[in-house]
Amino acid sequence: MATNLPKVDVIVVGLGWTGGIIAAECAKAGLKVIGLERGRSRGTEDYLRIHDEYRYALRYELMQDLSKETITIRNNRKMPALPMRQLSSFLLGEGLGGSGTHWNGHTWRFYPYDFQIKTMTDQKYGPNKLSKEYLLQDWGVTYDELEPYFYKYEQTAGISGEDKNPFWGKRAQQFPTPPMKKTPILKKFEGATQKLGYTPFMLPSANLSEAYTNPDGEVINACQYCGFCERFGCEYGAKTSPEITVIPTARKTGNFEERFHANVVEVIKNGNKVSGVKYIDTQSGEEFIQPAEVVVLASYVMNNAKLLMVSKIGEQYDPDTGRGTLGKNYCYQILPGATGYFDEQMNVFMGAGALGMTIDDFNGDNFDHSDLDFIHGGSISITQTGYRPIETNPIQSDTPTWGPEFKKNSIYNYTRTLGIGGQGASMPHKENYLSLDGNYKDAYGVPLLQMTYNFTDQDRALHKHLSEVCSNIMKEMGAKTVDIKKPITDYDIVGYQTTHNTGGTIMGSSPDNSVVNSYLQHWDAENLFVVGAGNFPHNGGYNPTGTVAALAYRSAEGIVNYSKNGGSLV
């Protein structure tokens, strides 16, 4: 029997970047907010002397426990979907900060083109550039409408960067802090890309170039370039994360309460509204009903979609009929690239998660696609994240993967190898979607989420094109040997790719094409907001965090307005 608790103004499910932003903004506005996080509390003090590659990078100390909850995966509807038993392709965060704790810190704004991709593609190339199996649509909001929210997040996070990219959307203000150090490795990339006629610039980074105090009074320290960012929490408080920014801001208001080990299993719906959530204390096993005036789903892409599905809120997408929007437009990313082997040694063991240089000459619609069999593109970057010794064994493609030659080459190449990689945009396809699994359940008796996903012809063509660009740059940088990424075939969960999962709870201009409106307010329940990268109708050529955060700030503004006035926000 579940225990009923006193009603509050706002419940936020999940305390990563999106949940932290919503909690801080609503609490600052005077609303009483409860944040429910199924993981544990943690902070900078927990990451002191955290340089344990085996524990954090290989055994995923900060990630979701798949023995309690996972997802099932298949490439197509004819295949059986099987549970993901070990984290690999993407890394699901859990605990205070979520994926915002173990991220690298790349912080981008999606292109104006991204938000109006259907309109702009049709205008330039006609409505048949891609087949009807690709489900392109505009987002229901424009870059110009989001620009102030992008900057609000950059101010909160103290993002380090430079406005030298001629292609991206216009900025109203400069970055809050200067770019990171331009190392000899980055200068090598800069010189080569300039010779090829491209325009390199420093990657916008949440690893800060200098100490910074944000508008809420939170202090973020300067990066030490230790090389332990991705999959690690920052021991210096220099990689901006929710634990050192938005969560402390929410706490200081006196209007915010955190509850940890609180796994939400249902959103309770009554008519055209929701009344609260049901959650389980994962330590005691007790069940609780937490009523609220507003419910905000701010957990990861997969869990937001799952909670709506198990709560029967919205219509499940059907790939046969095209009806329904819940679970539709699941997208991932492709990782084209090239590896170069050099004679000279370089300090590759030093770095930071977002220390890098980028070109955008092949991102968005920055190049002509008239004679190409794909749209969009990807950012192309060299990053100096810090090669860690257990995972890093660079060998040429013709080297055996074991034995004396493998050992000799991997040791020799460790400080003589560089990689250039692209983040290729992913377009929605009718056969790529999320649903509930009919066979498997989690530790709490709730059906697992099922992912049906495979790379498409669009993905394969874009991957090939961008890999060739990366290879040409690497040759210009002076590599004695260059290995280009092999063409992609079918998607495989084995091997890390990116934690840039999007779609499933997409935003749009009407209930016919989306789950939520442009304020991320659910079309079927006016006091329910669903916030995260699941709102993206397609994935872009960048990391999603900056765009997720901008949408979260806009949604928070909408939640505060809804709390005062009620009704639909659009």
UniProtKB/TrEMBL annotation:
Keyword set, alphabetical order: FAD, Flavoprotein, Oxidoreductase
Signal peptide: none
Source organism superkingdom: Bacteria
Sequence ranges assigned to domain Glucose-methanol-choline oxidoreductase C-terminal in this UniProt record: 428-552
Sequence ranges assigned to domain Glucose-methanol-choline oxidoreductase N-terminal in this UniProt record: 221-329
Cross-referenced PANTHER family: LONG-CHAIN-ALCOHOL OXIDASE (PTHR46056)
Protein name stated in the entry: GMC family oxidoreductase
Native organism: Psychrobacillus mangrovi
